[in-house]
Amino acid sequence: MNTTGLSWLLLIVSLPTSSATARMRVWRGLKALGCAALRDGAHLLPTRPEHEQALQELGDECLREGGSAWLMSVLPRSDEDAVAYRHLFDRSDDYVQLRKTWKEANGGLAAMGPQELARLQRKLQREFDAARAIDFFPGDASAEAEAAWNDFNKRIESLLSPDEPHETEGGIPRLDIGDYQGRLWATRRRLWVDRVASAWLIRRFIDRDARFQWLAKPSDCPKRALGFDFDGAAFTHVGDRVTFETLLASFGLDADPALVRLGSMVHALDVGGEPVPEAKGFEAVMAGARERLADDDALLADMSTVLDSIYAHFQREVQRNNASNDKSGAK
After folding, report:
1. CA–CA distance, 283 with 265 (Å, rounded to integer)
2. Is the pTM for the entire model greater than 0.90?
């Protein structure tokens, strides 16, 4: 008698031998769901509403292709069978392979450019997320892989953004823009996403006469300069805000929804988080500009045009959403 309380979904399908394309499509769907194959055409998953819907859709596809499909709920007859069913979903080997991939990739990271590093990071993150999504009974292997991924990911981040600031705690005081005019601002050289966006924000919305100094290392920052985006700087990561978002909050610019939207894009690229559709394109342009331009003043000028355009795009998006909400409210 099964005492685990866990039920299972069993999908049994068959397709005509002539339906090679449909067969491959269904096989890929079953693989993506993380099904365990009991035998050819018999596929098992733990019972969950999303699994039932997905298996039903695959079964319906088999029927449309002239095959057969039966979806049923099953219970193990004993605790031993229940343990055996769970063992079918042991992902330990998958995690071992992922960790081997990370170890092999680690040796070549230093020779990669920022765009290549970011692309590799996204690819490996997707693979790891896919493995965890079908790890229905996570254990020690999952925890060990999580720790290994965090270490590997920090290595990539350190190459993408040397001297990247650590987050600090505390509130963000509201500052008077009038007190920050014609100042010298300083940040780490070889600009990347948060630094270039912050420099653009400073010159565009805070201090139009701002002068910038690009630092080989944070300790080179002159005492008279306003540092940003490094540990100990006047403006840096605070709580879950990246430097761009800290500047928004400091000067009351977070009342502009288009700037907030731009801040979400910078946040996603700098520390991760909710995906923003425009982020990938901006990152590609930024990486290409860094390849073309060795001078940070030229890089800022080049990327400022891009940021102006993205800001205008977000402004139009906000206006469209407001107009749509006004129409909905009028009905």
Report:
1. 10
2. no
Enter the tokens of residue 127. Answer: 């693979």
Per the structure block, which two tokens stand in for 104?
């092999």
Determine the Cα angle at 29 with ends 24 and 33, to 5°. 145
Cβ neighbours of residue 244 under 8 Å, at least 6 residues apart? 194, 197, 198, 201, 262, 263, 266, 267, 270
Q: Which of 227, 222, 170 is nearest to 198 (CA)?
A: 227
3-state secondary structure 226-271: EEECCCCCCECCECCECHHHHHHHHCCHHHCHHHHHHHHHHHHHHH
Can you say how many angstroms the Cα of residue 60 is from the centroid of all Cα atoms in its chain? 33
- Please tell me the distance from the alpha carbon of residue 115 to that of residue 122, in angstroms, as a whole number: 11
Q: What digits encode the pLDDT tens for the residues 67-103? A: 999 999 999 988 899 999 999 999 999 999 999 999 9
